[in-house]
Structures are given as structure tokens and as C-alpha cells.
Amino acid sequence: MLTPLIIHRIISKQARAEFARAMNFEIGPPPELPACTDSESRLLYLHIPFCERLCPYCSFNRFVFQEKVCRRYFKALRKEMGLYRERGYDFQGIYVGGGTPTVLPDELAETLLLARETFGIREISVETNPNHLTDQNVKILRQAGVNRLSVGVQSFDNGLLRQMERRDKYGDGEEILGRLRSCLGAFDTLNADMIFNFPTQTPKMLDRDLDVLLGSGVDQVTYYPLMVSDSTRQMVTRTLGYVDMKQEGLFYRQILERLRPTYRMSSAWCFSRKPSLIDEYIVDYDEYAGLGSGSIGYLHGTCYANTFDVAEYVGRIGRGEVPLMASRTFSLQERVRYDFMMKLFGMELQESSLRKKYGAIYKYLWKDIAAFTAAGGLRYRNGTFSLTERGCYHWVILMREFFTAVNNFRDFCRDAIESPLVW
């Protein structure tokens, strides 16, 4: 009989191989952005690749903040939105990630206001860091129409914050908690972005973090496992220690036991007091456009990546070009399996929604459905697939491997850049 640990290892190994193949993009002549001729609901992802300090575990496209470069970048980003509008695209939601989107709040606000004038935006989510939770910044973001603010906390433990090189810049655990509480009620949703399975983390340390969260009053908690790309593994090992996946499942069950009495699960790693946009916008939106240097989008069955070179990005936008550098068109089977995985990450999936979109689905999914059902991770009832408690962790493993593959692709693109901030 297979033990849970063996099952988890099998899922991880197979997912890693599949996602590595899926992220094998074609890099060559820049692909073309197709025109949009429908009115499907889509999300606009805006990437701001600047941080005051670079965290050792992060694989997103990001650079140390330079104000002059950043202002030119925001100007180009606003022009890129116009290029999508010219091609017939409309968007109902915005997610702004980074980097640190709030390094220049005035530029961000101008960008969001333009997006609201240009598209049919209904909801806006923005990421930030604890040191940016000032009264002035909160006021600017509220006036720009931000509904959800996601704060990169990671942990309240001062030892872990020091290992992550975040304590000096973003404050200690008590300061971060105070800043979060000062923002309660300012937005429809205040989210605390957390990470678990740090090498030196213990169950007692995680319990203390959970105690703080439960007493903080935040509307939403996102709890990711530590995800390490191939290129950051050495840095993470040097600064944080060796990542032990055997602890991950134990920590995850601890998080479930503590948070679920107070929060409902809106995804396998997001816990909400009320309905709201979540970090994994790929659950709520079938398609999304990625704007900004190093952003990734998924439109019309094709995954696109913008150039990771900031100078090239600004230059191409100035010439009226959509700055795509790579693409990968998914087969029908890949599209069905992608939708199946992403929608179920949101805890349940209506069979009818997949049938409406793709017609016959079982010829593409029967192996996945059979395997996860046999492993006790999937339930089917009255036309609805849903995750069991065991299945929630299966999907955490899947998404961890998915985002690791995406991060490896980012590393590959970034390594091809010689001088990304030289103008």
C-alpha cells in the first residue's frame, strides 16, 4: 500500500516533469498578439519589477529600485495598455504584482486610473510591503480604486525575518502587525501573504505566526509553501538552509487546523472571511494578459511572455510594439488539463463548465480523475468535482511545482539579459 508520503513524492515528480515540458517556450522572432473579437471576462496583470531590497528566495523578474528608470517604466506600461485596447481587448479585473508595485505610489495611481478609464474594470488587487503601509499611501491607493491590498508579510517571527533579510527594511513582527491593524477597514479585502516550510521553521514557530494572524483581524490569509527555483536554490540554502519537503505536509495540516474555524478556503492555500479576489487570479479568470517586463499572460490558448529586459521593453513600447519575446501554444489536451487543475485549485469545479468549453472531456482527463480519486484527493457529486482535505494538499503540491516551473522559465529568460537597466 502506498503511504501518503510516497503518493506526495509521485505527484511532485510527475508534476515537475509535465510542467517543465509545458514551460518549454519557443524563443525566436517575437510572436504576434492576436486581435480580440469576443467579450469574455479577462484579467489585466501588471508587473512592476522594482524592489528596494531583493529577497533571496524570489524568482520573479525584479531589479533594485531606481526612481528615474521606474518612472520611465510606468510611462511605458500605460502605453502598453493602449496597445491592448487597440487590438480590441477589455478587462474586468486588475492584479498588480512585482517586485513591489507601490515603490512609486503616484505612478501606480496614475496607471490604475487610466486602466479604469480605458477598460471595464470592476476590481483591483495590489501587492505591497509592510513599510509602505503609510496613511498617505493608503489614501492614494483607495482613491485609485484598489479593492484588495495584499501585504507581503511572510512571517512575524523575527528570526525568520532576519534570515530573509527583511527585518531591517520592513520592521519586526510587532511593527508589521501594527501596520496591518492600522489598515483594517481601508479596503474591501486586506490580505496577509505568508510563507511556510522555511528550513529553520518549527511547528511552534508556525503556531505563533498563526496566533498573530488569528488575532490580527485581517480579511484574508494566503499561505504559500516556500518555492525554490533551480537558480535560487543555492542562495536559499546559503541564507535560509536546506528545504525539507517532508515537513511541508505536516505544516500544511497545521495551517488548516488553525485557520479553517475562522476562515473559509477560497483556494487550497488562500483563506478568506468573505468572497473576494485572490492571489491566484488564474482561478477566477480563464484568461489574463500580462503587461510589463517579464510578465506572463494566457490568451486564446497561448501562453505569452514579455521581454525580461527593461530597456528593451521600454524601447519596443516606444516604437508601438507589443513587447512579446516567447510563446507556447497549448494543445487541446493541455488546455483542458490546465483548466481542470486551475479551477479545482479553487476547491471545486462544475463538470458542465468544462463540457461547455471543450465538449468531451473524459478522453483528456480520465487518467487524472482516476489517479486523484484513487489517492483520496478528489470527490464527484451531482456534476461537481471537489477537493477532499487530502486533495487540498495534492493541489498545493501541483501548484508548487507549476510555479517552480514558471520560475525556472523566468530564470532562463533573465539569464539571457546582459544589462537589463542600461539605457
What this model shows, in words?
This protein has 423 residues and is α/β, with parallel strands linked by helices. The protein has a domain at 38-284: Aldolase class I (TIM Barrel). The chain has 16 helices and 18 strands. The strands form four sheets. Strands 10-11-9-8-7-6-5-2-12 form a nine-stranded mixed sheet. Strands 1-15-14-13 form a four-stranded antiparallel sheet, with no helix packed on it. Helix 2 (67-86) packs parallel to helix 3 (105-118) and helix 3 packs parallel to helix 4. The protein starts with a helix and ends in an 8-residue tail after the last helix.
Overall mean pLDDT: 90
Instruction: Name the CATH architecture of the domain at 38-284.
Output: Alpha-Beta Barrel
Query: Tally the helices: what do you get?
Result: 16
Report low-confidence residues grouped into runs of 5 or more: none
What is the overall silhouette?
A: globular
Query: CA-to-CA gap between the ends?
Result: 60 Å
Strand order of the largest sheet: 10-11-9-8-7-6-5-2-12
CATH superfamily of the domain at 38-284: Aldolase class I
CATH class of the domain at 38-284: Alpha Beta
**In percent, how helical is the residue content?**
40-55%
Radius of gyration: 21 Å
Largest sheet: 9 strands, mixed
Query: Any idea of the CATH topology of the domain at 38-284?
Result: TIM Barrel
DSSP strand tally:
18
Strand content: 15-25%
Structural class: alpha/beta
